[in-house]
Amino acid sequence: MAHLFTPTASDAPREYVANLDIVRFLASLWVVMTHYGFIGPSWGKTGYQPPEGIFALFLKMGYLGVPIFFVLSGFVIAHVSSNIHFFKFALNRVLRLMPGFWICLSLSFILLTFLGTPDPLSVQQFIANFTLAPQVFGFEFVDGVYWTLFYEFIFYGFATVLIALGVFHKRMLLICAIWLGISFANNLFIEHVIFERVFISYFAGAFVGGMVLWHGWKKGWAFYHIALLLASAFSLALGVQKLDTQDFLPNFQGTMGYLPALGYAVFTIGVVYLALLAPQIKRFSGVALLLGGISYPLYLFHQEVGYALMRNFVVADHVFLSVVIILTLVVLFCGLLHLFLEKPARKFFTKLVDGVREKYSFSFI
Question: Which of 13, 101, 149, 213 is the most exposed place for a label (fewest CB within 10 A)?
Answer without folding.
Answer: 13
